Every structure is written in C-alpha cells, then in structure tokens.
Predict the 3D structure of the following.
Amino acid sequence: MAFSLPPLPYDRGALAPHISEETLNYHYGKHHKAYVDKTNAAIEGTDLEGKTLIEVFKAAKQKGDQGLFNNSAQVWNHTFYWHGMTPNGGQPTGDIAAKIDEAFGSFDKFKEEFASKGAGNFASGWTWLVEKDGQLAIVNTDDASNPIAEGTGKPLLTMDVWEHAYYLDRQNARPDYIDHFFQVVNWEFVGECLGKDEADLIPEFN
C-alpha cells in the first residue's frame, strides 16, 4: 500500500501566533505532501513497496539511494515534528521532566542547550532530543537525516530548522522561531515516547 499524508493532530491555524496557518499550509500541505508523493513514486513496483517507512529509509541509506532516502526520511521527520507540537504547550512533567533535570541540570538549561544547538545547526537540518542507553542527549542532523538512520538514539522531540519551517513567519530569524517553538512543544507526547520502541513512535507508519 502507498503511504498517505497523515492528518495533523490539530487544525492548521491552531499553533498561531507561534506558527501561522500560512506556514502550515505550505510546510504541511505542500512540502510534506510532496515528500509523500515522491516516496510513493520511488518505491512503486519495487521490493520496498509494503515496507514500513523506517524500513524504507534505512534500506535507501544502505543502498546509497539519496533521493529515496531524502524523501522517505522527510516524511517520517515531518510527521514526528507535527506530533511534537500542540496548541496547549507548557513544561514537561513526570518522568520526562526528571530525565531532563538529570541530563541537563534543569529545564532552563535544557532549553538553552537545545536552542543553541538549533541556532547553530548550519544550513538545513533538524535538532533532536534523543534517548540512548537510558540517557538523554541533543543531536543535530543535516538535511533529511535523523537519529534512527544514524544510530544516535531514539527520537523524543524534533525541531525542523529548514528555512521553510519558519521563513513566512520569521524570515531568516531562526532564534525567534526557536523561542516560539518552545511555546508549542507537546511534552505529553515527548514523555510518551520514552516508553516506546522507535517503530511505534508514530503509529501512522508502523
């Protein structure tokens, strides 16, 4: 079966004023959809048809098929990104809050480090909070790559730092975008990811 563009977990205008409906119309409605369509076109009639999305982008990376890797990984990355946001953002609680305090000293120090890594992530890419061997860390990836493909940890949260994620709202002011991103982080989702296998993080693509 072909992959579908997963529905957003909120209305396109629900994240405003932090991320506008106009941005969602382009970022989700055009960019994300294009990644889905190109992935489907690339795997149709191949041995990857019917595989999970993670299996597709791992196989593409192993084969050196950069086009398929870029598109299929971007489908996964974007779906995970949308789930990591909510109109009702706040602060982490429970196990994820304790893990953040343990790893970074405090939530404020985590925010400082995450913002610094995101602002310094050169050109296009993603900034991630990951769990590896029971410990939390912040990692950057370039272009379409992600921690699952690189083996650097299980994703818990991601922030898209491609310019198409914020240009309509913030022009090239990435630090301003990062400040607004923290207002809409879905910490409940992040906490739920702690107890899941990587294959189950976004069930749309199991």
